[in-house]
Amino acid sequence: MLTRRAFVNASSMSAVAVAAVSGRGQAASIPEAATMKEAGTQKPLVPHTGPDYNPIVTLNGWTAPWRMQGDWKEFHLVAEPVVREIAPGMKAYLWGYNGQSPGPTIEAVEGDKVRIFVTNRLPEHTTIHWHGQRLPNGMDGVTGLTQPPIKPGQTFVYEFQLRRSGTFMYHPHADETLQMAMGMMGLFIVHPRDPKERRVDRDFAFLLNAYDIEAGTYLPKVNTMLEFNLWTWNSRAYPGIDPFIVGKGDKVRMRVGNLTMTNHPIHIHGHEFHVTGTDGGYVPEGSAWPEVTVDIAVGQMRAFEFMADEPGDWAVHCHKSHHTMNAMGHSVKTYIGANLGNLQTKIAKVAKGYTAMGDKGMAEMGSMEMPMPDNTLPMMTGFAQFGAVEMGGMFSVMKVREGLSAGDYKDPGWYKNPPGTVAYAFNGTLPEAVRAAGSPDATHTKADVRVVKPGSMPAKPGMQHD
Amino acid sequence: MSKIAKGIAVKSALLTVCFGFAGCVSVSNDGGMGVVQSSVSTSLSAKVDKDETGIGHRAAIHALLKKSLSPERAVQVALFNNKGLQAAFNDLGVSEAQFVQASQPTNPSLTVLGLTGGGAFDIEQRLTTSLLALFLAQPRQELAQAQIKAAQIKAIATALQLAADTRAQYWRTVAAREQYATLVLTRGSAQTAAELAQRLGQTGALGKLDQAREFAFHAELSARVQLAQTQVFLEHERLARLMGLWGKQATFTVPMRLPALPKKIRTERVIETDAILHRVDLKLARATLDVVARQYGLVQSTRLISVFDFTGAQNNAGSSGARTQLNGAEINLSIPIYDFGSARIREAEQAYRAAANRLADKAITIRSQVREAFLGYRGAWSVARTYQLQVLPLRKTIEEEQLLQYNGMLADMFTLLVEARARLASQSAAIDAKRDFWLAQENLRAATIGGFNAASATDGKAPANDSTQ
Ligand SMILES: [Cu+2]
Asked: Is the peptide bond before A440 cis (omega within 30 degrees of 0)?
C-alpha cells in the first residue's frame, strides 16, 4: 500500500507515501492518494508544474501533491480513520484525510482549475465543503442541499476554478459536528497569480481545533459541545507543536483558521503585526490594522504579517490561559494555603503512592513529571533553557535568528541571550515593604464579609471538628 | 447388583464401619472410653480424655494456648477442657456400669441347694431358673453390648458436635478481628478526609456544608468501628466458652486474619458415600436398631436389605460409575430382616420397623444435608474466590488509576480517599466471603462426620444456641 512513486512533479516528497485507491475501475482516471505518516512540519512543497508561487509552511502538516491533467490540477483526498499524535506521549483516534488530521493543505493558484477527488473510507457518509470559495452551487459540498452524500466506499469529484487568492479551509458538511469533533478539516491556500503580490519570506498556516479526550482514553467525546479539554493547532498540543523558525529581518505571515466552537485571541510576543487578511480576502494595504493579539472568531480566518526584527525565543499562543493547558480536572479543589503537614502521611497510608500537590499553587505540576494515566499529557509541561515552561495546548515558540538561509526550517535550539539582557535575581537587602492601609497581609487574611444565615449564626470559614 | 456383591459389601461394612455388634464392642473396664478415644482420634485427629483426677490437662492446655490459636488447637483445648463433654463421658461410664451389672447371669450354685435343704419342687424350680438364666446370658450380654455401643456413639457425637462448634466459632472470631482492622483503616481514611476538609475550611476553600458531610461520615464510621470492636469481644467470649476457659486463660489470641483460600476444593463424587459411612448420628440410629432387635430377642435374621429399599426408595442401580459407588455406600447401610411370622409378637415387629424407618429417615436426611452442605461449600468458595481474584484486584487497579488521575491534577485528592474507602468496603465483603467459606467447610465436615448443626448453615452468623448438645 505504501509504495513510493514519483507520479507528481513535486519536490520534497521524502515523507510522502502513495496509496492506491480502492475503486479499481476508476483507477486509471483517478490520481493516487498520497498518505502521510509523520506529525511533524513537512518542508514546503515547491511547485514544479503549473504557475509558480511561494509555498506555504503548514504547521505540523503537509501539502497534498497533485498532478496536471490537461489544464486541470488534480488532487485526491481520502476521508478515513487516522491515528494522530497530539504530542509525544499521546495519540488520538481521529478521522482525517490521507493519514492525518488535519488533512493535507491544498495549495493552488488564483485562476487554477482544480479537480478534487474525494474517496470516503469512513463508516458513514461525508461531503467536503470548500469554506470561503466562490464556486458553482453544486460544488459547495452541503449534503442534501447541494449534493447527495458521498457514501462509504464512493468517490466523488469536485471541479471548480479558483476565483480569488487568500486563505480558505475545507471540512465536511455531513454529520458536521461529529466529523469535525473527530478532526476532519484542512487548509486550502490560494496563491496570487503574481508570485510577487503580497509576497512574504515565510508563510505559516494552521487551523485551531479542539477535542475532548478524557485522560487515559484515545477517542474524542463527540457529544461535547463546549467543555473541550485539548486545545490544539493542527491537532497538536504543546509541547507537540513545532516552533516557527524565522530569520531575523524576514517578513512573516501567519494564517489562522478557527474550526473550534469558541474564539481564540492569538498573541505574539516581542512584535506588533498587521492584520492583512480576513475570510473575505486581503485587507487593503492602507487599512491593515496593528495588533499584538488578534481574536479569531468561530469559523473565521485571519492572516497577519510582521517584520521579525527582534531575535530571540518568542512565545506565540492563544491568550485564553486555559487554552494553554492540557487536560485537567475542573473539580479539583483549591488547596492554596492549606497546610497539609502530617495529613500527607495519613493520606499516603490509605492511598499508596500519594504525593501532596497544590497547596502552594499548581506550578509544581509543570516540573514534577509524575506518573500519569495512559495516553495523557501533563496539564502543564514543556522545558526550555531556564526550566519548566508550564504550558500546554495552544502554545508555541517563534525562534527569530540571524543568518538563517531561505527555506531553512531546522530548529536552531534555545536563544543565546546577549550578556546582561536576561532578568536576574536581586541579591541585596531590601527595606521593609510599606503596605497600603487595609491591604491583606499575613496577620489578616480573612475576608471581612458578613452573611446572615438561617439560625442567625455569624458565618465562620472554619468548622470545629473533634 | 448381584447378591454376591451385596454380601461382599456387607462384609466390608462390618469390618470398616463396625455397625454390627459382634466383634467391635466388648465390655471393658475403661468406662467405654477406649472406643470413643480411637473414634475421635480418627475423625478429628485430636485426643479426648476423661478427666479422672480433676486437674485436667492443665499443662497441655497451657501449652496449646501459648501461641496464637489454630482451629486444631482450639478443638483440642475444647475436647480437653469442656466440662459438658466430660459430663457426657461420665454418663457413658454410668451407662456401662449399669449395663454390665444388668447383663451378669445369675450363678447356678447347687451347693446352695444342699445348704438350704428345701423341697424338691423348690430345688427344681431354682435349678431351672439358674439354667434358664445361664441359657439366657448370651442374649442379655448382647443386648448390653448393643446398649453400651449406643452410649459410646452418643459420647462420640457429643465430642464431634463440640469440635464442629469450636471450629466454626474459631473462624467467626478470626473474621471479626480482620473485619475490625479493616474498619479501623476505613475510619482512618474518613478521618483524614475530615481533617482535610477542616483545613480547607480554614483556608476558605470549603464551606460548612461540605465540611459537615465529611465530619458526619467520619462520625458514622467511628460508630461502626465500635460495633466491630464489640463483635470481636463477643466472638472471642463465645470461643472461650466452648473451650471451657475463664480468667487469665481466656485471654488467648487468634490470628489477625483468615488464611488464604484453598486453590482447589473437594469434588462432589464421594460426599454422600462419605457421610453414609461416617456420620455419627447415623451410626447411633443403626446401633439403636440393634438395641431394639436385642431387646425383643430377634436373632434369626432371614436376609439383609438396604435401608433405602426398606423404605421403598428407588435407586437407579448401575446407571453410572458414580452411581454404583454411591450404591456401595447404600448397601453398606444394610439391616437384617427377621422372621416376624413365626413365634414373634406383633409389638416386636412394629418396634423394629419403627427403628428401621428412623434409621432410613436419618440416612436420607443426611444424604440431603451433605449435598446441601456441599453446594453451600462450593458456592461460598466461588464467591470468596471472585472477591480474591476479581473484585480486589480490580479495586486495586481502580485505586492505581485514580492515583494517576490525581497525579495529573485530573482528579481531586478527596477522590483518592473515596476510592480507598470503596476498596476497603470490598475488602470487608471479601472477609465476609472468606469467613463464609471456612464456615461452609466446617459445615461440610460436620455433615460428613457429625456435629452438623442445621441452624448454622452458611449465613456466617453465630448459632442461636452454641451448646454442645
Ligand atoms: Cu484559545
From this structure: no
Cis amide prior to A102 (ω within 30 degrees): yes
B444 Ramachandran zone, left/alpha/beta (phi>0; psi -120 to 50): alpha
Q: In this structure, are residues A7 and A31 in contact, taking their beta carbons and an 8 Å threshold?
A: yes
Residue A345 lies in a domain: no
Q: What confidence score (pLDDT) does residue B337 get? A: 78
As a dihedral over the C-alpha atoms of residue A416, residue A419, residue A420, residue A426, rounded to 10 degrees, the angle is 80
Residue A116 lies in a domain: yes
Question: pLDDT tens digits for A149-178?
Answer: 999 999 999 999 999 999 999 999 999 999
How would you classify the pairing of strands A293-296 and A90-97?
A: unpaired
- Residues A188 and A116: beta-carbon distance below 8 Å: no
Give mean pLDDT, residues A184-192: 98
Mention every residue, 6+ apart, whose C-beta is less than 8 A from residue B342: none
SS3 A49: coil
Give how many domains chain A has, as a whole number.
Answer: 1
Give A360's Cβ-side CA count (13 Å radius): 6
Retrieve residue A274's grid coordinates. 498587521
Half-sphere exposure (Cβ direction) of B110: Cα atoms closer than 13 Å: 2
Helix (H) or strand (E) segment spanning residue B356 = helix B346-386
A to B CB pairs, distance under 8 Å: 139
Interval between CA A391 and ligand 1 midpoint (Å): 13
Measure A329 CA to nearest chain B CA, in Å: 4
Task: Write the CB contacts of A243 (distance below 8 Å, at least 6 apart in sequence).
Answer: A313, A396, A397, A398, A399, A411
Rounded Cα distance between A35 and A32, Å, is 10
Under 8 Å between Cβ of B102 and B140: yes
Contact B171, B461 (CB under 8 A): no
Is the confidence at residue B403, as pLDDT, over 60? yes
Please tell me whether the overall predicted TM-score, pTM, comes out greater than 0.90 for this model. Answer: no
CATH number at residue A82: 2.60.40.420
B211 CB neighbours in chain A (<8 A) are 463, 465
CA distance to partner chain B, nearest, from residue A458 (Å): 12
Domain membership flag for residue A190: yes
For residue A7, give every residue at least 6 positions away whose Cβ sits within 8 Å of its Cβ, in sequence order, or none.
A18, A31, A32, A65, A67
| Burial class (CB within 10 angstroms; exposed 0-12, middle 13-18, buried 19+) of A413 | exposed
For residue A376, the model assigns a pLDDT of 92
A200 touches chain B (CB under 8 A): no
Q: Does residue A335 lie in a domain region?
A: no
Q: Give the whole-angstrom CA distance, residue B320 versus residue B5.
A: 17
Helix or strand (DSSP H, E) at A100: none
Q: Where are the domains of chain B?
A: 260-303+355-449
Top residue of B206, B409, B419, B426 to mutate, by most chain A CBs within 10 Å, is B409
pLDDT in tens, B142-159: 787 788 888 888 899 999
ipTM above 0.95, yes or no: no
With CA atoms as reference, report the closest residue to B88 among B40, B33, B28, B155: B155
Distance in angstroms (rounded) separating the CA atoms of residues B284 and B292? 12
Nearest CA in chain A to B424: A350
Say which residues have a Cβ less than 8 Å from residue B431's Cβ, sequence separation at least 6.
B175, B178, B179, B182, B257, B258
In single-letter form, the type of residue at position B35 comes to V
SS3 A258: strand
Looking at residue B114, its pLDDT comes to: 35
d(CA B170, CA B259): 12
- Amino acid, single-letter form, for residue B409: M
CA A123/CA B159 separation, integer angstroms: 74
Between these two residues, B421 and B334, which has the higher pLDDT value?
B421
Cα-to-centroid distance, A175 and ligand 1 (Å): 24
